[in-house]
């Protein structure tokens, strides 16, 4: 009797999970996005060095907590020794540790909240200093790089809460005790791109001043892992592919339950799957992704759904690139191209921000 009760319970759980996944289906948004697509027959020569570093990352051994500590250490040291022309200053932003990254000549009233990637488990303000110093220099902005709480020591909602508190903080606080921001942006990569897209919708729902623009690099937009490129691009993604290789043999409904157990939030909830939420009324958003990475489908679905809802979201793609290639320095032609597009996008958003401030003051 107990055996059959267990079997019946598993069947009910399986049926319920499949129903949840059907409700989250976004296949109608898989069409190519009309927008910026780099046409390049082959990657630039510097890509060879990038691939060597990805192999170094993939070779980190160990298990459990030991491997996690080694991954975190590798990430933190990844940018050491690379030239960065910005000053860093520790800060506690709304109760959350982080650092201000300010390049020479940056305007402290023009601000970017940067949310690092790393699968919600690794990464830090230190690991992403090359990105944040580049953004500060190109955008002429002070960058607040956040050390939000990570898994598995904390719940997923803890990191989300940290990002929300830091956003409230950056609206009214800058480096050197400067007051309210003239322009404020949010940016992030991979897991941080997920948090960036979450914040864009959350500010709308909370009635807060929205970011004047947001930049998401290779974002995770759907935590149910529903896009077809999770499978089709595994072989061409040297960063996410090896890590996700075993997942392809696990039924999606079991992955759904595992994600729920690990993150303690329903995987379909817009807090962790921004693409499954209401994408109307969003601020301008720029998404960049590689045509070869597993998260390409997430970026494509999010952009198509947001555009259909009337939001000013654009997607830019580069072929052949690794996941978040913007992390690997200016030696790559593609990295310079990507940052030039980001700088141009932020400059487009600034006049709207300043005009809005002037109307408010008047």
Description:
There is one protein chain. The protein is of the alpha/beta class. It has one domain: Rossmann fold (3-Layer(aba) Sandwich). The protein is 43% helix and 15% strand. The protein has 11 helices and 9 strands. It has helices at residues 2-23, 47-58, 64-77, 129-139, 156-172, 191-206, 229-232, 240-244, 252-263, 296-308, 333-361, and strands at 36-37, 87-93, 96-102, 107-115, 141-146, 183-189, 213-217, 285-290, 313-318. A 9-stranded mixed β-sheet has the order 1-9-8-7-6-4-5-3-2, sandwiched between helices. Helix 1 packs across helix 9 (252-263) and helix 5 (156-172) crosses helix 6.
Element order, helices and strands? HEHHEEEHEHEHEHHHEHEH
Biggest beta sheet attributes: 9 strands, mixed
Q: Termini separation (Å)?
A: 75 Å
Shape: globular
Residue runs with pLDDT of under 50 for 5 or more positions: none
Rg, Cα atoms, Å: 20 Å
Count of helical regions: 11
Number of domains: 1
List how many beta strands DSSP finds: 9
Q: What is the CATH level 1 assignment?
A: Alpha Beta
Structural class: alpha/beta
Give me the CATH fold name. Rossmann fold
Range of helix content: 40-55%
The mean pLDDT is 87
At the fourth level of CATH, the homologous superfamily is: Alpha/Beta hydrolase fold, catalytic domain
Name the beta content range.
Answer: 15-25%
**Level-2 CATH architecture:** 3-Layer(aba) Sandwich
Reading side by side through the largest sheet, how are the strands ordered?
1-9-8-7-6-4-5-3-2
